[in-house]
C-alpha cells in the first residue's frame, strides 16, 4: 500500500462547467504505478466545485450552467452575503450542492470510470481565476 | 492494510429511488475480513446516482422522486441536450446533485452506518437498464 | 500506512448551518501523527448533512438556511412522508443534496483545506439533538 498527494493549479476558466480530466491526469503521471486504489480530487475553494458527468457533448455543460442559474437564482433581495456581487453567495451554494471533491476508483494504473464519465470543474464565479486542486492517491 | 476492488452489476430498476444495501453487500463477502476501513461505492454512469438515506419507509423514496422531478423539471424548452428524450439532460443534472459515489465507514467487518441509513440507487432514466458499480475497500 | 476510526458526538445544534471544524479536530488529536492522508467524516443520520464551505462570515450560513428552505419547500401537500412534521421529509431531501460525508486531504498532521474552507453541520430538523459522526483517517 502506498499514498501520495499533489497540489496542482488549473488554468483559469470562465464561468461555467469545464471538462478537466486530461488536465488533472497530465499532472499525476505516478498514477500508472497504482494497480488498485482510489484518487481523491479536492478543490481548495468555496465558490467552485467538482463533479463527474458526461464527457462528450458540450451542450451538457451548457445545460448545467443554465439549470443551476435557474435553481440558485442571483436574486440579491433574497440573500444577505452579497458583498462581492450577485455571483458571490450563489457560488457558495452551488459549490456545496455539487460538492468540493470527487473520489475515483483506480484500476491498472488508470481511472476506473464509466465510458462517458469525466471530471468537471464547476466554476461559479464570473472571474474565478486559477483554482487549486489537491489530489491524494491511495492504493497498491 | 489491504485493498480490494470489485465491479458488480445491479439488476435493472425502474425510474425512481431504490434501496440497494443488501444487493451490494451480497456481492462483497470479503467485507467480513476488514476490521477498520472505508468502502467507496461508485456508479459508472452519468444518468444515475448513489446516495444514502432512510432505509425503512418506501414513501421516502417516492417523495425523493416527486421532489426531484419538481426541482429539475423535464422542460425541453429550457434545455439543449434532449436528443434521447426529456429524461436525458435532467438525469445528468440530478446525478450530479445527488452524487456518483458514497463512501461508507467500515468497522468490525460491517458497514458502520446509522440505524436508518441505506444505500439508494437513484435511477433517473425511464429505461436505465443494468447499472455497473465499482466497490473499492481499503482497511486493516 | 495506518488507519484509525473514531465515533464522536456533536453538541446539539439548532436548525441551520454550523461551523464544526474545531469541534471535530479537538476530538482527533491523532491527526498530528499523519504526514499524508485523507480523513473521511461521516454523519450517521438521514436528516442532517455535512458539507464544506466558507468559514468566516456567519451570513453565509444564514443564506444557506434560507436558500435551502426555498429550494426544498415544507409544503406537506406535495409530500407523503410527513408523519414527524413538515421538517421531516424535507430534511431527508436536503441531507442527500448536501451529502452525508466529506473527505478531506491531510498533509503534515493537518487538514489540507483552502484558507476559507470549514466543515459545516447542516442541521435540517427543528430539534435534531446530538448528532453522531464517524471519522476514519487513512494515511502514512
Helix amount of chain A, in percent?
Answer: 10-25%
Strand ordering within the main sheet of chain A:
1-8-3-5-6
Shape of chain A: elongated
SSE series of chain A: EEHEEHHEEEE
CATH class label of chain A: Mainly Beta
On the 0 to 100 scale, the average pLDDT of chain A is 98
CATH homology group of chain A: YjbQ-like
Beta-strand content estimate of chain A = 35-45%
Q: What number of structural domains do the residues of chain A give? A: 1
CA-atom Rg of chain A in angstroms: 16 Å
- The CATH topology of chain A corresponds to Jelly Rolls
How widely separated are the two ends of chain A? Answer: 4 Å
The number of distinct β-strands of chain A equals: 8
Report the CATH architecture of chain A. Answer: Sandwich
Continuous helix count of chain A = 3
Estimated structural class of chain A: alpha+beta
Largest interface: A-B, 36 and 31 residues
Main sheet characteristics of chain A:
5 strands, antiparallel
- Contiguous runs where pLDDT drops below 50 for at least 5 residues of chain A: none
Describe the secondary structure blueprint for this structure.
The structure is a homotrimer of 140-residue chains.
Chain A: E1 2-9, E2 16-19, H1 21-25, E3 36-43, E4 48-54, H2 58-71, H3 87-98, E5 101-107, E6 110-111, E7 117-123, E8 132-139
Antiparallel strand pairs in A: 1-8, 2-7, 3-5, 3-8, 4-7, 5-6
Describe this structure in words.
3 copies of one chain form a homotrimer. Chain A is α+β, with helices and mostly antiparallel strands and about 140 residues long. The first copy, chain A, has one domain (about 1-140): Jelly Rolls (Sandwich). Chain A contains 3 helices and 8 strands; from the N terminus they run E-E-H-E-E-H-H-E-E-E-E. Chain A has helices at about 20-25, 60-70, 85-100; strands at about 1-10, 15-20, 35-45, 50-55, 100-105, 110, 115-125, 130-140. In chain A, the strands form 2 sheets. A 5-stranded antiparallel β-sheet of chain A has the order 1-8-3-5-6, with no helix packed on it. In chain A, strand 5 and strand 6 (about 110) form a beta hairpin. The termini of chain A are close together. The relative contact order of chain A is 0.38. The mean pLDDT of chain A is about 100. The interface of B and C includes residues 102 and 114 of B.
Amino acid at each position: 500500500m502506498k499514498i501520495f498527494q499533489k497540489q496542482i493549479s488549473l488554468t483559469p476558466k470562465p464561468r461555467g462547467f469545464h471538462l478537466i480530466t486530461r488536465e488533472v491526469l497530465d499532472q499525476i503521471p505516478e498514477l500508472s504505478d497504482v494497480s488498485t486504489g482510489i484518487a481523491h480530487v479536492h478543490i481548495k475553494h468555496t465558490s467552485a466545485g467538482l463533479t463527474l458527468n458526461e464527457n462528450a457533448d458540450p451542450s451538457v455543460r451548457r445545460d448545467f450552467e443554465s439549470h443551476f442559474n435557474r435553481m440558485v437564482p442571483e436574486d440579491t433581495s433574497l440573500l444577505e452575503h452579497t458583498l462581492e456581487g450577485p455571483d458571490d453567495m450563489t457560488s457558495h451554494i452551488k459549490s456545496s450542492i455539487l460538492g468540493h471533491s470527487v473520489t475515483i476508483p483506480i484500476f491498472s494504473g488508470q481511472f476506473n470510470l464509466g465510458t462517458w464519465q469525466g471530471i468537471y470543474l464547476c466554476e461559479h464565479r464570473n472571474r474565478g481565476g486559477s483554482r487549486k486542486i489537491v489530489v491524494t492517491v491511495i492504493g497498491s
